[in-house]
Amino acid sequence: MQSTEIEQEPEAISSLTAADRCDECGAQAYIRVELATGELLFCGHHGNEKREALQPIAISWLDETEKLLAR
Ligand SMILES: [Zn+2]
Predict the structure, then answer these.
(1) Which of 11, 60, 67, 70 is the right S-S partner for 34, CB 3.0 to 4.6 Å?
(2) What is the extent of the structural domain holding 40?
(3) How far, in Å, from the CA of 61 to the mean position of ligand 1?
(4) What's the 30 CA to ligand 1 centre distance in angstroms?
């Protein structure tokens, strides 16, 4: 008999929600970039587009695009 334990993923504190929108196009954001000057949100498309330019100067880079692929 198998137990039906619900596995809980430890959510990142700064997890993105459906209310977070891409700064470029307004689509749901899956990437949060923390810069010295502030925070930017991007959808998967624009996050990938900006990654090369922004990642080297980003304080933190939260990429939740795997949520897109998971469903
Ligand atoms: Zn976008």
Answers:
(1) 60
(2) 18-64
(3) 16
(4) 9
